[in-house]
């Protein structure tokens, strides 16, 4: 029998995503029964009722759950933070050096809009080769990295899953540097937390296999469509993508133009929705209806165009948006910021 490991796992959520977090948590525990798991949940005003429901969802598993209140990030930096369309809890991964107990020297941070479909033992045991964090390379155009001052030899990563050497993270004062960057780039960056992590830790990231954070792009696009949709700096090989899809560890249900909604919403067409609903049945939200599909007018328009325009043309149009227009707009904002400082 495999010897049990003790792993520290971190989630973050507001009250609106408590049910989504519960599904990810149950999938984690269901597929890590041979491990003892300490789960730290950074709570952005999760209600007592939903905390109880999260705990009850996990009651049949070997784990300890601790809720930690998310501090007010605006108070920390001394001005109102523009969180875009996100929750303040997105900044929790930046604050883990002080939010977690000092004796926690290593942790895996996982976004709550995920499924964990395999043991995390290998990921936990990964040698980061002296780096402070481990993450997967995101399929982004190099213009994003250039805008942020990331060297061409480094890559933009997706911070939805991070293996963190918290001992090094604290020693190198990354939290202080990242908090300063939140203030410096307030309201300018499209992905405020992710962008500054990629910028400031660019030389201190160990790149992990794709299976540890498979975003919707890889499920909803054929391999030859990925480059057309994203114009990526780093392109995973077809074997790497197929291997990750065949044996995923963490599936990330990020928003994506080829997906109608998300698995906790009605009529979601993500390929992994049936698997998601299977784990939802094991939570305290099992008997509640799925949420109605909610999209911004912009996303609703994109879905309409998606149904009208031939697929290959639509994907290339999105590629122009992701690979050219959005990074140019980002560059314009950053240039204005530098000129004003």
UniProtKB/TrEMBL annotation:
Molecular function, one GO term: metal ion binding
Organism in which the protein naturally occurs: Desulfosporosinus orientis (strain ATCC 19365 / DSM 765 / NCIMB 8382 / VKM B-1628 / Singapore I)
Alphabetical list of SUPFAM superfamilies matching this protein: Nucleotide-diphospho-sugar transferases (SSF53448)
Keywords from the UniProt entry: Glycosyltransferase, Metal-binding, Transferase
Statement: the UniProt record of this protein carries the keyword Glycosyltransferase: yes
Gene3D superfamilies, alphabetized: Spore Coat Polysaccharide Biosynthesis Protein SpsA, Chain A
The protein's name in its UniProt record: LPS:glycosyltransferase
InterPro entries: Glyco_trans_8, Glycosyltrans_8_dom-fam, Nucleotide-diphossugar_trans
